[in-house]
Predict the structure.
Amino acid sequence: MTGTAGAVRPVGYDVVCVGESMALLTPDPPRPLRAGGAMRLDVAGAESNVAMNLARLGLRVAWCSRVGADPLGELVTTRIGAAGVDVSLVEVDPTASTGVFFKDPGPHGTNVHYYRRGSAAAAMDRGVWGARSLLGSRLVHLTGITAALSEPCADLVMHTLTERPISGALCSFDVNYRPALWPVRTAGPRLARLAGHADIVLVGLDEAAILWGARNADEVRELLPGPRTLVVKDGGVGVTSYSPAGTVVEPAPAVEVVEPVGAGDAFAAGYLFGVVRGLPEEVRLRLGHLVAGSALRVVGDIGDLPPAAELVRAAQRVRSDTEV
């Protein structure tokens, strides 16, 4: 039996994000986990990162998920809701716990350790689309992380992309490959199949190289011809978009990187904000870079953003080869 985290309001959303968010523990100050000591408790999840950034840009956003009936579930839901995201569709499961993960900083980068097996979110299924408040929503955002959590979650993602339970909504899919969740031999073909059914696909060139052996953006497009729009991100180099507008290449601006975690989700949010606003493809890509830059400059997944109108003006007038 499940409860709900709040009352359902009959609205259509600009964007609906579906996926797991977890409690995040990080050594404070940064040091290897094996050293012990004080930790900072926070909240993180790819889809909710996108949702929070979009809400801060003024869009009407809902996050659909499941959490445990525990303090960490309350923390997750409260923190995401405080960012302006509607969490009324989040189910509270009294029989399973909220997932947890740890950051493990080291001299050669940060490793991540997940404790999410059997979490409440792993029981998500296509039933999330039963709420009438979702009718009329404009865009649904999913990631490959959800598809790796469990068979019901994988079915949820495939059902959403193929059956389109929200009539008329675009479906975006961020590949978001996580090696800790499933091996390449399983993830490669499944993620390619899911991506083939989406309207908009975002993927890192590094991911595409691991999953499918792609060496450049053009090879990724050859491997994924199905999506109407394909956005291939190449870290600090730039991004290439294949869409009805043609092939658009937008170099990445120079950014002083504090921590890269969360930048991919931030890029997705900036880009999807441009999609919802109906902005030209090159402006969408620049918005992605600008929002990603906000995440790169901070420790944590969510950075400070200027008002949406100011961000759009910057994306319309500033070339990406200029530092912002």
User: Anything to note?
Assistant: Confidence is low (pLDDT under 50) at residues 320-324. The chain is about 35% helix and 25% strand. Residues 3-22+45-97+118-317 form a domain with the UDP-N-acetylmuramoyl-L-alanine:D-glutamate ligase fold (CATH 3.40.1190.20).
